[in-house]
Amino acid sequence: MPKQKCGWCLGDPLYESYHDNEWGVPLHDDQLLFEFLVLETFQAGLSWITILRKRENFRIAFDNFDYKIIATYNEAKREELLQNAGIIRNKLKVNSAIVNAQKFIEIQKEFGNFDTYIWSFVNNTPIKNNWKNHKDCPATTEISDKISKDLKKRGFKFVGSTVMYAFMQATGMVNDHIAGCFRYEEV
Q1: How many domains does the structure of the chain reveal?
Q2: What percent of the chain has pLDDT over 90?
Q3: Reported pTM
Q4: Is 165 an annotated catalytic residue?
Q5: Is residue 173 part of a domain?
Q6: Mutual angle of helices 161-170 and 142-153, in 10-degree steps
Q7: Is residue 2 a part of any domain in this protein?
Q8: Active-site hit among 15, 18, 23, 131
Q9: Which residue out of 15, 23, 35, 48 is catalytically annotated?
Q10: Which of 69, 101, 159, 181 could form a disulfide with 151 if both were Cys (CB 3.0 to 4.6 A apart)?
């Protein structure tokens, strides 16, 4: 008998693999947190599967999501990214990745690392929800509103509350696997 999974991932092997192995697993590595920040900002207004299908292209185009390198991108690199058909070629989103890398480093200087900063919003403990259906999950919460507001105040771009809630779900700050999903207790 197949394992029960969250309904949003069913039917696409890439989606199911992401769900089974990554989504909702608590992340505390700044490099991975930055990767998800970039991917979630590019996802704004698009489907997550679109981003997953282009993830390796993003990894190559954005120097393996090395925020220290991205923070130094110049105009030539911006143009190169805007010509790269393998990623989402949105000027505002490309610019946001560069600005966000610079601001990410500023947060690291202030808090020691980004992990300490971002996880403080949930008191360093994942929020465990108890949804019966994936459609019951909210798009935003008071906490994602608070994170979004604080990041925007610090100069981050494309970090609206919906993007930040998706980031929280992806990085395990919140467990939104449905209660019957095999990953619910595992993460």
Answers
A1: 1
A2: 98
A3: 0.96
A4: no
A5: yes
A6: 110
A7: no
A8: 18
A9: 48
A10: 159
Going by C-alpha positions, the residue among 93, 103, 43 that lies closest to residue 71 is 103
Please identify which of the residues 23, 35, 40, 165 carries the catalytic annotation. Answer: 40
Tell me, what DSSP letter sits at residue 63?
Answer: G
Cα angle 148, 149, 151 (rounded to 5 degrees) comes to 65
Q: Is residue 53 part of a domain?
A: yes
Q: Is 134 annotated as a binding residue?
A: no
Digit-coded pLDDT (tens) for 155-177: 999 999 999 999 999 999 999 99
Confidence bin at 13 (pLDDT 50/70/90)? very high
Q: Give yes or no for residue 181 having a pLDDT over 90.
A: yes
Q: Is 1 part of any domain?
A: no
Is 186 one of the annotated active-site residues of the chain? Answer: no
Active site residue 18: yes
For residue 65, give its domain range.
7-186
CATH of the domain at 32: 1.10.340.30
Cα–Cα distance for residue pair 101/169, rounded to 1 Å: 21
Residue 54 clears pLDDT 90, i.e. is over it: yes
Dmax (CA) of the chain: 54
